[in-house]
Give the backbone structure.
Amino acid sequence: MSAKSFFEGFKEFDYENPDFNNIGSWPLVVRMTALLLVAVLIVFGFYWFAVKGSQERFVREQGKEQGLKEQYRTKSFRVANLDAFKEQLAEMEETFGALLSQLPDETEMPGLLDDISTTGTQSGLEIDKITPRGEQVKEFYIETPIDITVRGSYHEMGNFVSAMAAIPRIVTLHDFSITTLSRSSASDEAAAPLTMQISAKTYRYKAED
């Protein structure tokens, strides 16, 4: 078949009313062209619905790669240091428990007041007042201020403040003031009778929270 007769099939084909039920009767050049067009459509459809979607998913997953690497490094570090973290947690729990045991509860408050009074007396002071005030509720604990008034010398008051740190319950001292009663019969200033007013605070854990 010559090239001229081959391409004459385009002229002979009835483009307005093609017979799709008898495609075999179409001219060879038309059949080849139709086959090529169908092949192109198949390739394009495969690319559009399969390859293109896969590429987009690949780009999205590739964008997540750095974040996943960071997560892997973080988790691998945690796993490698898990035993150390457990030991630190145990130490923290032990420390917290020890501190918690130093916080008096409501039933221990009278004993704490006795401890403060005994500490003052053993330091050589005369106790004028040890009076708890109203509780102040904070976010994680309850604070109880205690007003303390004692009389004695500078040395005795220093001993009292130092000895308060040895009380087995947590007590902090705040806002103290010292005034002189009378030095008319005192041999020197250090031995003069003094009055000290000081605010102590103790704390109770809010176990209900």
